[in-house]
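User: Please check token order:
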Amino acid sequence: MLSPRNLLLAVLLFSLFVPLGNAVTWTTIDYPGAKHTFALGINSAGEIVGLYYDSALNLHAFLDVNGTLTSFDYPGATSTAAYGVNDSGHIVGYYLDASGTGHGFLFDGTTYTTIEPPNATSSDLAKINNFGQMVGYYIDNAYIGHVFEYDANTQNFTFLEGPQNASLLTGGINNLGDIVGSATKTLQTKGFLLSGGTYRFFTASNAHFTNPRAINDSGEIVGGVVSDGGQQKGFIFSAGKSLILDYPGGSGYTQAYGINNTRAIVGYYKDLNGVFRGFLRTP
């Protein structure tokens, strides 16, 4: 019997790749009455999660299903943010408790569960795949940051340490178990792809700062870059090539945070009035 990874690889061999640069549609996502809205994760059904700041600048998570946005908060939290959602509707993110400490959480639609390594002083969860594998980041009791993977089936943590003493930040995970994020060494930040136990580093569009946030099952990666001139844009990286993403008519500040298997991308941009607004980009 094929493993989930090999089954997905077999299916993807017969899929058609849509070239970069085709005509696309951009749609703004605003939580009603919010000061700022950030779209951060999307599943294959097109369900979107993110965060928004209300009129009092309090932070809440939201779920967008077919254009209907619903707010939710971790019970007792002072702030809640959602970063990823899988095809079962399971949502991951982080919340701040009454003392201001951050914790990663999983919400399965009914129950909230805090998930973090035992020696964490703060944590968050970035993305979750369809097999219950999650990636996140935590600060240990020595105030050192680490990337981790958590498997909900085995309830085991795996800790990732970058090669050559690179400092890692987590981004996302796909259904093949491939993980992306950023790696910083000697003041240079590159993207990394961890696949089959091997790290591969890359730079999108020759930027001096590359920060991947999500990867789909075709290996397409999205995230944000900072150019030498300080411009901050989104990107999609596929087959060794990158395409800069910038919301049309915005201020020139765009960040991509999620991509699904239909190549729909979510993120946020800053408009001409300095307001952050979520977006959905569809091919």
About this structure: The domain at 4-282 is CATH 2.120.10.30 (Neuraminidase). The chain is about 5% helix and 55% strand. The chain has one domain: 4-282. The mean pLDDT is 91.
